Amino acid sequence: MKKQPVPLFVLGSGRSGTTIMATLLNRMDQVHIAKETGYIGHCLPLLRKINEDGCLRQLVVNVNSWLATEQWEQRATVDGYRRFCDQHEVSGTAAFIHYIWQLESSTPWNELEYIGDNTPLYVMSIPGILELLPNARFIHIVRDPRDVVCSVAKMRFGAEDRIAAALEWHTTIGCWLMSERLIEPSHSTECRYEDLCASPEDALGKLAAFLGRNPDEATAAVMAHLQDATNDRAAHTKVASLPHHRRLSEPLSASRVGRFRNELTAEQIERIEEIVQYGMLAYGYPLAEWRTSPLMTGDRFAMLRIQLRDIALKCMKRLRLR
After folding, report:
1. CATH class of 6-145+185-256
2. What is d(CA 257, CA 203) in angstroms, rounded to the nearest whole number?
3. What is the pLDDT of residues 146-158, one digit of tens each?
């Protein structure tokens, strides 16, 4: 069998730095991290039956709807997938996933060492990914949940209620910690967003080592990103082009860390920490004090109020955007 690129997933909670990490990785030779796809977890039944003609055609339709949402310029076709398989002597589900990733790659697929994408919430699809791509590698990005909540609150997607956003972070971190037991230790690594901002060369150097690359590549990638940011070049379009990715063109800086201190009240911070304190302690984020979590008290009505408030806020936002 011919050597094929290794699948590489950059994932984590939304607004944790997955896209900036993908941008930096793409500056390394023979690495292509595509824009977000998002379809794998949702399309598992079709992916499993890809050899059935009807399933393949429906899969292409479903995948293209995701690509349109993420503003891909290219679209998948049944004929395109079959030509890809014939050209590279591959077939099946893994070949289809690789076919999608390479649609907008400037480097030919067979010349790549790593290929993948940076869909954050694939952190909730790892068992399915391992079923389809058992040789996949994973880079998990984690960020202070209080900063994540601040960032999510300004986005077009995700929770509108801050406590609901904290619950989402809590869920994704739990998914990763459980999925780590399923992944071979040598196939995954982790990076804190704060470390990436404070010392990007060191943080990316560790990831370069994980990928078996020369640490000098990490230094070159960081310097290239800084140069593009200084010259105001939109280098992020390869991995993202939506409005909420505009900061990808800015230099990495420690000033991005700890924004919650200025954007949240003491009461809001306390309520968020009540939800996410387990993950904060696990990742070494300072906690004011340990409190009884509302998840421990079994107050179902409180949880219901949070969800209903989030739904109401989302509806109001959509009405304003019309």
Report:
1. alpha beta
2. 15
3. 999 999 988 766 7
